[in-house]
Amino acid sequence: MTESIREQTDSTDTGDRDVSRSGEQQPKLEKQVGLWGDAWRDLRKRPLFIAASAIILLLLVMSAFPWLFTATDPNEQLLSKARQGPSGEAWFGYDHLGRDVYSRVIYGTRSSILVGVLATSLTVVLGSIFGLISGYFGRKTDVLVSRFAEIFLGLPFVLGAIVILSVFNAGIVSPGEIRVMSQVIVTIGVLAWPISMRIMRSAAIAAKQQDYVNAAKALGASHSRIIFKHVLPNCVAPVMVYATIALGQMIGLEATLSYLGLGLKAPVVSWGMMISVSQQYIISTPHMLLFPAGFLVITVLAFVMLGDAVRDALDPKQR
Question: What residues contact 227, with CB distance under 8 A and at least 6 apart?
Fold first, then answer.
């Protein structure tokens, strides 16, 4: 009898210990990762995201440290080698002025990436501010901001860029490098912000109808606190997806403006400028066009693929 009682006591103690151990481990099992953590775990399994990230990382390193990839001055002219094809000395050949096309493509990455990042940042900031104001306050504010955005949406990009850049450069023979880049960034941002504004507006309208926002209003929280603490954090995801995709588009827009002679100008090196010059020699010297155009296409596609992967990871319906 005594031994059976001891066995029951030991089994009970063992069961209690197991329960206590499982109770101690339970919070770890129920730990929530969150939207961004779950998205990152999903992105790491996507080959499209890995490939796009590798290309973008290489381009960023190339734009930040171009001297690691080439020791040749992109503006050095050797007229004796003008329009020579690719060789061991010059991998991408020479242009019509005897400049190394490979060196110019490498250094052109910096200006294209820089303009694309800054123009996208300006577009997202402007669009987010107006979208939050419009979506949160609604009514007359929403109508006023939406009609104001439609003015820019109805303006063709190329025509608007011609007007803005012509006004900025009226009477100026040779604007400086910083001035030209600033003008291009501001022009793209001013003409492209309504798209991010609409995305932020839709997200803000959905977020302000949630219970936690109504609870914050009932507790007497100010509008600024509700917007920045409750509404904005729940509106970032769709805007970030748009910004990732738009970054490639901004690089393409900069190349378009430079191709038309409205964007970056010498001594700045840009893929759009290289494509613009090479059109006169496309038959006799095709390498002047193929290499900068190839880098431009790969860059735009990499950012578009990255944006598609991020969108699919953040959208529960895609899983």
Answer: 132, 136
